[in-house]
């Protein structure tokens, strides 16, 4: 779906992983006999099972980084009972969704309603039947799988909405937003933010001479080299055509000059192989450092753009810092 | 005198305890409920044999200090376990005891507690006998072959 440069190691955010085949289950049950039965069955059905003997322990397990997603909670437990646990879990609104099966010895309709209202997805009355439990857990896993695929689709869309299809780096909208964010931070925290506008030199000639596929290969390689030359907390995006934008949080003039030079040298370091030949390319860079009194992103960009214009007019393959 | 009889020929064995309390335990049904898993069957019975006396001890203590909530809670637990193991009469007594605890009728609770204690003693003996007679691996697989593979 998303085309990112073949070996691109650029700012590609990891997509949410596909639903793992084993669902992690938590059993909270104070009765050792039922605890053992549930554990034994769930393990036989291929789940990774955690068992606890009261609601408070279950709650602490659920605060872990990757908490279990299929919860089988006993209604009556010391410390914190099943319904209270349900309520707390739903209050927390964790993502991804956790499927809750409440197990109850009670048969009262009112109790069942109370449990479902507290946030349980389903309930099972004791003495529970093995086949019925298994079928109900299949329902739960169906819901969890649906949830996983929705999250996956959402993350894919989010990625597409913020990344450049050809190079895999941030797109214009995303990098502008990052700049806006960093300028805000500059004002608040009284630190500088540097912005570089980078334009590949004579790019039209590359396209005209070697074709658009070769031009694409150059763009991809430029993005890769740019990414390699910056720090992990810097951002690089494709501004448009053969123009790139780099945001360097916390860089003063000297650091900005050094970074821009490093990028320029990295871009020009070696030719790229495309269209059966070796294509050399260079870039011009316009740089500016915005202080705490920074203007709007548009005005900061205009300054960097003016510097880029100077770099172009004074021979290209160079950096101008204003 | 306690004795238990395996009614019918294996593999559809049934265990019945003939004694004053006339407690019957259908071990085959319990095994079936557990998915025919003999290992689990043994484990579960052992857990019951270990836990039930503790629970009865706690019950004694709860009644002695007039603790209605604990009486109700322990009886509730026992009711569930006994019911699951197919011990209907004893489970019924536990249920009565749970009600007595909930209603704060501790005099009645104490009376039922004595009955329940007798039930559990007989049951425990029956279970020990069954475990002794049918070590793991010898219990006939009587029902649904355990389904293989993960869901």
Q: Could you report the average pLDDT of chain A, rounded to the nearest whole number?
A: 89
Terminal Cα span of chain B: 48 Å
Q: N- to C-terminal separation of chain A?
A: 41 Å
Pairing-aware structural class of the strands and helices of chain B? mainly alpha
Low-confidence sequence ranges of chain B: 1-21, 137-149
Tell me what portion of residues of chain B adopts beta-strand conformation.
5-15%
Give the % helix of chain B. Answer: 55-70%
Structural class by SSE content of chain A: alpha/beta
Strand order of the largest sheet of chain B: 1-2-3
User: Major sheet of chain A, described briefly?
Assistant: 5 strands, parallel
Can you summarize the main beta sheet of chain B?
3 strands, antiparallel
Order of helices and strands of chain A: EHEHEHEHEHHEHHEEHEEEHE
Shape of chain B: elongated
Cα-atom radius of gyration of chain A: 28 Å
Strand content of chain A: 15-25%
Average pLDDT of chain B works out at: 78
Short description:
With about 325 residues, chain A is of the alpha/beta class. Chain A contains 10 helices and 12 strands.
Describe the 3D structure:
The complex is a heterodimer of chains A (322) and B (151). Chain A has helices spanning 32-44, 55-62, 82-92, 109-117, 130-162, 172-189, 203-210, 212-229, 253-268, 297-313; strands at 24-28, 48-52, 70-74, 99-104, 122-125, 193-200, 235-240, 243-249, 272-274, 277-279, 283-290, 319-321. With 322 residues, chain A is α/β, with parallel strands linked by helices. In chain A, the strands form 3 sheets. Chain A has a 5-stranded parallel β-sheet, with helices on both faces. In chain A, helix 10 links the parallel strand 11 and strand 12 (319-321). Chain A starts with 23 loop residues before the first strand and ends with a strand. Chain B has 151 residues and is mostly helical. Chain B contains 5 helices and 3 strands. The termini of chain B are far apart. The chains are: A alpha/beta (322), B mainly alpha (151).
